[in-house]
Design a protein that fits this description.
Layout: H1 9-16, H2 21-43
The structure holds zinc ion.
The site of zinc ion (ZN) has 8 residues, from loops.
Length: 111
Amino acid sequence: MTAPSTGCSDVVRAVRIDPDRERRKLLKAYHRAHEEVSAAWRARGYGYPPPTFPEYPDELRGLICGAKTRAGTPCKRTDLWENGRCKFHGGLSGGHERFSAEGEAKPMRGY
Ligand SMILES: [Zn+2]
């Protein structure tokens, strides 16, 4: 399917921009901070006392996946993974972040 040549490419582009982009970035930052605390706790053998995890930001409550579905509507799922998408829209794979230098062994953990 080709886009109609109405000269409204700016409008088409504006629709594609994720309205929750900033919140999704915040979600990733939250997961990174959480992982740092967990890694420090793991390093000391999950000893007592347990660490204080960062609080889940209130503005992230109700954040939806927002991926474009086959019906053309935004996905409404709220069970998001670290990358801010649901399990159907790229959530299960952490993308390149999971395969970065420090996360290289992560997918094989548990085997
Ligand atoms: Zn989704």
